[in-house]
Amino acid sequence: QVQLVESGGGLVQAGGSLRLSCAASGGTFGNYVMGWFRQAPGKEREFVACITRWGGYSTDYADSVKGRFTISRDNAKNTLYLQMNSLKPEDTAVYYCAANQRYWGPDKRLYNYWGQGTQVTVSS
Question: For 11, which of 39, 51, 56, 93 is 20 to 30 Å away at the CA?
């Protein structure tokens, strides 16, 4: 069973950048499909991006972040990343990393393992 811990959140001005990290332990990281999700106050948790396991590392993004965010992973370091550029106030949310062993896509119900989240706040 994998444990996930996010870091790298903070306060940034609109137009700025942040890089989130998600450290995994307790499992073979490369065996897991990984995703980033976010939840703003009063809203449901929503999909941000996902990346496949070993091999070609196919990625998928929500339309709202496409071209601004980049998901990546380093299996040797057991770490998932989310590079966020050109941040907007509407990107303000708690960001969560998530994992599962079979499903690659945006459905949060199919991710079995979740971190505690890291707060990202974008000021205008």
Answer: 51
Over its length of 124 residues, how does the chain's per-residue pLDDT go in tens digits? 899 999 999 999 999 999 999 999 998 999 999 999 999 999 999 999 999 987 778 999 999 999 999 999 999 999 999 999 999 999 999 999 999 999 999 999 999 999 999 999 999 9
d(CA 104, CA 37): 13
Spatial CB neighbours of 11, under 8 Å, sequence gap ≥ 6: 121, 123
Strands 118-123 and 10-13: parallel
The distance of Cα 39 from the centroid of its chain, to the nearest Å, equals 11
Euclidean distance between the first and final Cα of the chain, in Å?
40
Unique residue bearing structure tokens 């070609």: 56
CB atoms within 10 A of CB 55: 7
Residue 49 makes CB contacts below 8 A (sequence gap 6+) with 35, 36, 59, 60, 61, 62, 65, 69, 70, 71, 82
Single-letter amino acid, residue 43: K
